[in-house]
């Protein structure tokens, strides 16, 4: 029984150390790609399957942009409100028609970079969501953006921004 308990504690200690290393790496490192708007578009997503974008060409990464009604300012306010309502988020940049936020996963605290661009002329919200670490995210970025779309479409027309 004592040997079983010792094995359990060693395994638990190893998992905790692994978790601390991942959290530390995520905290100490920033985004791997230069983020922001270049030539009217968001940075392309990597080839790995842990990212989605409304600008992507490949079906693996592609999601449709989100149409909006009302003014671009109202759409931007709704984006900000919805992002702030989602768990474990931190808005890094919110200016003009561009918003960048960091989303953290629940247990391991993996950081994903999420960007939004309000295109006034097309009345569309372009976006990009990409993991900082790893190769596969098991569909987390796609799921997040589907959830964002659902919340955005259900949010009131007038922004609730303070």
Brief descriptors of the model:
two-stranded antiparallel ribbon, six-stranded antiparallel sheet, 162 residues, 25% strand, alpha+beta, 35% helix
Quick overview:
The protein is of the alpha+beta class. 35% of the residues lie in helices and 25% in strands.
Description of the molecule:
The chain contains three helices and eight strands; from the N terminus they run H-E-E-E-E-H-E-E-E-E-H. The chain has helices at residues 2-28, 72-85, 140-154, and strands at residues 37-38, 41-42, 51-53, 66-67, 89-95, 98-104, 111-119, 124-131. The relative contact order is 0.19. The strands form two sheets. Strands 3, 4, 5, 6, 7 and 8 form a six-stranded antiparallel beta sheet that branches. A two-stranded antiparallel ribbon has the order 1-2. The longest helix has 27 residues, at 2-28. It is of the alpha+beta class. A hairpin with a 2-residue loop joins strand 1 (37-38) and strand 2 (41-42). The N and C termini lie far apart (58 Å).
